[in-house]
Amino acid sequence: MLIFPNAKINIGLNVVSKRDDGFHTIETFFFPVKELADALEFIPSKKTVLTISGIDIEGNPADNLVLKAYYLLKERFDLPPLSIHLHKFIPAGAGLGGGSSDASFMLKALKEYFNLPIENKEMLDFAGRLGSDCTFFIGNAPAIARGKGEILQPVEIKMKGKHYLIIKPSFSINTRDAYSGVQPAQPMRNLAGLIKLPMEEWKDSIRNDFEPSVFKRFPELGIIKQAMYEMGAVYASMSGSGSAIFGIFDTLPEIPKLPDKYFCWKA
Q: Which residue, 107, 123, 154, sits at the end of a domain?
């Protein structure tokens, strides 16, 4: 079975409070970027193995969320061994949700391929056990996310005709370090309401709480964001805790020459 787990961007991200369990309560708007996707394939095999190609990702393949998704369902169902191959197009450590998407799409593909009797509520629970962002990719539709990111409120938003530019430098941002630079606080305005404003007003209304401290440590990211606006972006922001910067455009601009190790994607 061949599937294509897609990326997401965060339009706005408020770090609301620190939880007793060490996590943070957030409010963000998840928007799927379905044109930017990994490729994930599996077939029955004599033993379960995961191979990975494409963009390099750190870590042992044995710890990959795709395998964790497989073994999570195998605890409940009698799944056979699988040969799994993941080809990475979505860069890791970018705030684009690639690993979470891979895991959730694996859950959905296993359910479909083996006709597993899993209700949607249980599927969301499985996804939440793999990671806070994973629940979003089960529905894979625009949504306001609260809690740790697992409480979702679907939102209808018009993006037809818009174009996207995503640029990620050669470095990544450690999520724990990013949180350490933020002072949690209740947002003054509700993000669900701000999203409904004309997009031209987002620049002055919707913010990512990670940007001030992250941009101070990595000025290059602020320069990229500013360049997006100079190229004509209607809205630009860092996605999640970074390090990818995205811009939303009415018309795609000419992309300037970038350093060789930059990731650049447009659609």
A: 154
What is the three-class DSSP state of 239? coil
Q: Same domain, yes or no, for 37 and 108?
A: yes
Measured between alpha carbons, how far is 198 from 183 in angstroms, rounded to an integer?
Answer: 29
pLDDT tens figures, 121-149: 999 999 999 998 999 999 999 999 999 99
Q: Which of 38, 102, 133, 209 is catalytic?
A: 133
Q: Is 20 a catalytic residue?
A: no
Residues 79 and 116 in one domain: yes
Q: What is the mean pLDDT of the chain?
A: 95
- Catalytic residue at 8? yes
- Farthest-apart Cα atoms in the chain, separation: 56
Catalytic entry in 8, 88, 108, 168? 8
**Among the listed residues 223, 100, 98, 88, the one whose alpha carbon sits nearest the alpha carbon of residue 167:** 223
Q: Could you give the number of structural domains in the chain?
A: 2
Look up residue 103 and give its amino acid: A
**For the residues 31-47, what does the mean pLDDT come to?**
97
Q: How far is CA 67 from the centre of its chain?
A: 19
DSSP 177-210: HHHHT------SS-HHHHTTS-GGGGGGT--BTT
Question: How high is the pLDDT of residue 77?
Answer: 97
| Position 62 confidence tier, pLDDT thresholds 50, 70, 90 | confident
Q: Which of 154, 185, 214 lies at the terminal end of a domain, its last residue?
A: 154
Separation in Å, CA 110 to CA 76, 84, 115, 210, 264: 12, 12, 8, 35, 31
* Residue numbers of the domain that contains 229: 163-266
